[in-house]
Amino acid sequence: MRHPRHVAICACVALASGFWGLYWLPQRAFEEAGLTGGWGTIAQYVVPLFVLAPIALWRWRAGKDTGLGFPLLGLLLGGGIVCYANSFLLTEVVRALLLFYLTPLWATLLELFVLRRPPGWSRAASLALALAGVWVVFGTSGEFPWPRNAGDWLALTGGAMVAAGAARAQAVQPRGVFGLLFAFFFYGTFVALATAALLSGQLGPMPAMAAWADMLPWLLLLSLVFLIPTNGLLIWSPAKLGAGLFGILILAEIIFGTISAALWADEVFGWRQATGGGLIVLAGLVEVLLGRGPERSAKGAAP
What we know:
The chain is mainly α. It contains 15 helices and no strands. The longest helix has 33 residues, at 209-241. The radius of gyration is 19 Å and the shape is globular. The two termini are 23 Å apart. Mean pLDDT is 86; it is low at 293-303.
């Protein structure tokens, strides 16, 4: 049965995803303000964690779920976004977006090696479109378009982790939003710290205390206005809208991100980036409109 606020939820999801397409702006602004070494990303996990901690403590004392029982979900979903966030500091915006959104590739690998079933024709079509989009953007010299820097690899890894986390969430079906949201920030913090340590040479040194003091109000504002509400919405809404429609709406992130990069980033944006982005968006549409989702599989298995 369709949710009574179906249209409003759709609009909010598309808008939240669009804002995530602009997320590279504050991420780079924090770095330019002195939060180097990936510490801007770490702060964007630690600050929401402190905001949510009193609620988690109250839930724990009341015998309710806090989310700490979902370490794998938290590491995959929270850690995947950590990789995505840091990728904007080490590569071009469009490259990070396109590599993160290689959903058909990860969906195919999950079907083959986890679900043990061959992908259908629609998956082959969406995978071909997605890889063609990557080839157009990254294969400028005619060579195989491997990721060329740490930022590319982070974006690719982040997309894989989020895809695996979404599959895990669908299998576990955690109750409520708070537990998953708290696990996202709690376990994601560990990934953020580990990433900053491993990539200290690329991300830079630990920031000065003055930078922390200057940026703390902005970090708190970003957490309250953007990070907590949008992550909560994007965790809650798939069950209300269906995975297919949700998958279409979140493609707004690529559109907003590529347009904003063309307008405000000092990066090359031409026909390759536009064409590649369009092919990956088309791949996502094929995946969610024609793909063999759980609902289709269940119907096909019915006697």
